[in-house]
Amino acid sequence: MVKLALLGAGRIGQVHARAISMIADAQLKYVFDPIVEAANAIVDSHGAIAASMDEILGDPDVQAVLICTPSDQHADQIQRSVIAGKAVFCEKPISTDVDTTCETLKVVDENQGCLMLGFQRRFDSHFSALKAKLDDKTMGSLEQLLIISRDPAPPPYDYMKSSGGLFKDMMIHDFDMARWLLDEKVTSIYAVGEALVDGKTSSHGQDIDTASVLMTTETNKQVTILNSRRASVGYDQRVEAHCANGTLQVNSVRETNLVISNALGIAERPLENFFMTRYQDAYRNEIEHFVTAIKKSLTPMVSGKDGLEALVLAEAAGKSLREGRPITIGYS
After folding, report:
1. pTM of the prediction?
2. Which of 107, 178, 210, 252 stands 20 to 30 A from 233 (CA)?
């Protein structure tokens, strides 16, 4: 039985607590959250013990921690956890700062730590099927990749200001998806963006809410990423991979597959309207993968380096937007 501790009992922490409860060989022993009511909700629903971080890291029975706290706490908590000998699952990002991310990964390496990043889309069955088809080479070489991510509505302004911005908060998932599907390095990036959904986004949220990015790779593949903080149809998540022998598509997921056909026409159900319901199976799959990695001493599929390289692309997109030119991506 792998015994786990949860740091952060907000909405994503609740999702992971639920996922742990569905894994036969995993147990949530502790939960930490400075908001007592949030911690107690996990205690009541999953039988965990509310504890301080020092108590959690000092318990030799705890093999791993799941970090679901605010982003500005991630780096410090990762470092403390790996120094204490715990495996770590952390929601993105490690940090919104590249230097801090590199320092944290250095601590992980020095302590031979296990760190997995929460890019849950890699564990979605639809995207995994597309990845498997690309890997079997029957479609020929990938030439163009289109990734569309549009949220139903913008987050609060205060969240925007603390999130690192659209590229680091929202599009970072698409950067990781692109890297995973391409399986080669991105060499240049050009970004445009604006506050088209809400003009106050730039002044009150210090951010943009609409962005388009064009990237090229070391073999000249083309990648387009489109993001918007508004989608009247619901949670719009699509990927299209155009290859030499055909095209692969994953469309947005609907609430149900019901199609109604009658004299008035053909109607389908609305799209899922929230990322936690759209990816509920993926969240469970990624935690199950993390637990398996701990039990079998395996390297997780999503590493800290994946988080760093997605952040490098997000930084470059921001620089491109500010300077109005393509940015060449350098790798150290």
Report:
1. 0.94
2. 178
